[in-house]
Structures are given as structure tokens and as C-alpha cells.
Amino acid sequence: MERPDGRQSRIMRLLLVEDDAMIGESVRDLLRAEGHAVDWTRDGASADTALRTHTYDLVVLDLGLPHRDGLEVLRALRARRDRVPVLIATARDGIAQRVAGLDAGADDYVIKPFEPEELLARIRALLRRASGRTEPEYTLGRIRIRPATREATIGDVPVVLSAREWAVLEALLARPGAVLSRTQLEDKLYGWDEPVSSNAVEVYIHGLRRKLGADLIRNVRGVGYMVPREET
Ligand code: CA
Fold first, then answer.
1. The CATH number of 13-131 is which of 3.20.20.70, 3.40.50.2300, 1.10.760.10, 1.10.510.10?
2. 17 C-alpha to ligand 1 centroid (Å)
3. What is the Å distance from ligand 1's center to 30 Cα?
């Protein structure tokens, strides 16, 4: 989705872990309205499974959960050296609880009930911080791409990409030289309960190749897609 100011916002894939149906629904809708893809799990065990099997840009984690406490889920996540940003959202508001959450590896904390604006601001801050960690620039011939600022140019000419084209491109740029399957790319694009049209990835790849040239994104027949390693 392109904003009126011409800047592009990237689709982020978020995991929401919340057992309260009303809170979960309102937070999910709020995040979706911001343009994020959201998976929602309602207990600690499912959250643990989701985190082991999917890649997320950020996790909003409740602590009081059925089956497995949120803190346990978080400790297991960090023990696997997974550095996905985690925002704890909980009604446990004691100082000791807050310290325990941060010590377990949370990046930030909001206390329920929270204002939607505060939640969104904290999420934006965490995503900004996280994007600062990615490689600053990719170049191939005259193509230059800066994922953090959503800038792409061929020579001096800026290229405008849609949010979903950026999502596909970034997944490929994260591992130049590696082939990603269509399913891996689809996974970057959508939450579980959003319908994926069968040719969605092809459509975005086609758009990217049309805008950036066929050399950048290579089709490995029957396997998937890749961008070549940078020339040195
Ligand atoms: Ca709860």
C-alpha cells in the first residue's frame, strides 16, 4: 500500500498471542488496519509452535495464557537465539513482573488496558529499531535497493514498488543466492486466515521483474526464485 506522501509502508507479519477473545479481536483488527498480516494464537503452546514454524517481524505477547505461560514461551524463544522483537501486553503490572518480562528477553512492555495509539507507537518503534539491523543496501549492475528506507533505483531513476512487492523482494534479498519456494514467499505475504490466491507470488514477481528487470529475480524452474549474490 502506498501512502499519499509517496512513502511505502512494508507489510509486516505479526504474531498476536492473546487468550481473551475480545481483546484479541480488537488488537488483531487494529493491527490489520495498519496494514500488517496478523496471525492470532490463543494459548502458550500454540504460540510456541507458531514461533518455531513461522518467521515473524514482531510478536505481541500476553503473559497469562492457557497451557503455557507467556514468559516460558519467551524464554524458549530466546534460548533458540531467535531475536524477533517481542512486545509484552499484559495486565500484570507489578515492577517485579515487568523486570521478569524484560529479563526474559522482551523488548518492550505495555500494561492493559492500553490505548490503541500507545500500542501502535510502541510497535512502530520496535519495527524501526529492528529494520536498522538489516543490511543497508543491495546493488546489482545499475540497480540499487535500500530495504530500510524502501528506496529502489535504476541508475538515477526511482522505482516505485507496492508493499507486497517489497515483502517479496525483501524475503529474497535477505538471502541472496538462495532459492526460495513459492510457499516460503507466500508465507511472507499473508496471515494464516487470509486467502492467498494461487498465483499471487507470480503476480508480484512479474511486477518486480517488469520494474527492476529480469536479471534481478531469477526463476529456478520447478524450485522457486532467487536474487543473485552481489557482484564484487
Ligand atoms: Ca491472558
1. 3.40.50.2300
2. 9
3. 18
Q: Ligand 1 centroid to 191 CA: how many Å? A: 22
On the question of a cis peptide bond just before residue 4, with omega within 30 degrees of 0, the verdict is no
The conformation of residue 190, written as its DSSP 8-state character, comes to -
CA of 109 to the centre of ligand 1 (A): 14
pTM of the shown model: 0.60
Q: Where are the domains of the chain?
A: 13-131, 138-226
> Which residue's C-alpha cell is 529474497?
172
| Torsion sign, CA atoms 188, 192, 193, 195 | positive
> 106-130: string of b/e by CB count within 10 Å (b at 16+)?
bbbbbeeeeeeeebeebbeebbeeb
Secondary structure class of 226 (helix, strand, coil): strand
Q: How far is the CA of 20 from the centre of ligand 1 (A)?
A: 6
Contact between 217 and 225 (Cβ < 8 Å) = yes
**pLDDT tens-digit readout, 134-175:** 557 888 889 999 887 889 999 999 999 988 898 889 888 877
- CATH of the domain spanning 138-226: 1.10.10.10
